[in-house]
Amino acid sequence: MKSSTGTAQRIPRRPALAAAFSVALAVFAADQVIKWLVESSMRLGESIVLIPGVLNLTYIHNEGGAFGILSGSPRILMVGSLVAVVVVLWMLLAEAPSRLTVAACGLILGGAAGNLADRLAAGRVTDYVHFSFWYVFNAADAAITLGVVLLLLATLLRPEKDRSSG
């Protein structure tokens, strides 16, 4: 069914879960492959200029969360990741989600899984994307951020009656 804005077509739960997990698996695989390529071809701390003054490929380890927050608190970060996964799964199961919600949840799940796998295996994540005006981050971080933005957009695009009922 389409919403009054025509943007919130709902998907039944089972296909929604399959689609979200497919997106999550693609994000997870891409994140892990890129991290492996960076780790196997660069020295820790090495930086390669991609676009002068704008974008570098910089290999660092990050024991904290986004922007280095909670560095030295791996348990808190792992619990936070698990809580995020539970919340996202609840969003997928609570009702027939919109396509945008499914995509957003898949991005968040895949990104959270990528960083959680790193934390479980090594106690830290590998970051490598470095815009000169921002922190160094990785594909999992980008997927989580994009997923959160899309989730906010999906919430704003929900018909008013859906928003007031939950």
From TrEMBL:
GO cellular component term of the entry, any: plasma membrane
Broad class of enzyme this protein falls into: hydrolase
Pfam families the UniProt entry points to: Peptidase_A8
Keywords (A to Z) from UniProt: Aspartyl protease, Cell membrane, Hydrolase, Lipoprotein, Membrane, Protease, Transmembrane, Transmembrane helix
Catalytic activity: Release of signal peptides from bacterial membrane prolipoproteins. Hydrolyzes -Xaa-Yaa-Zaa-|-(S,diacylglyceryl)Cys-, in which Xaa is hydrophobic (preferably Leu), and Yaa (Ala or Ser) and Zaa (Gly or Ala) have small, neutral side chains
Keyword Ribonucleoprotein: no
Listed InterPro entries: Peptidase_A8 (IPR001872)
Example of a GO biological process term: proteolysis
Residues annotated as the enzyme's active site: 127, 141
Pathway named in the protein's UniProt entry: Protein modification; lipoprotein biosynthesis (signal peptide cleavage)
Membrane spanning stretches: 76-93, 100-121, 133-157
Source taxon at top rank: Bacteria
GO MF, one example: aspartic-type endopeptidase activity
Membrane topology, from the record: Multi-pass membrane protein
E.C. no: 3.4.23.36
Function: This protein specifically catalyzes the removal of signal peptides from prolipoproteins.
Annotated family: Belongs to the peptidase A8 family.
Matches recorded under HAMAP family: LspA (MF_00161)
Protein name: Lipoprotein signal peptidase
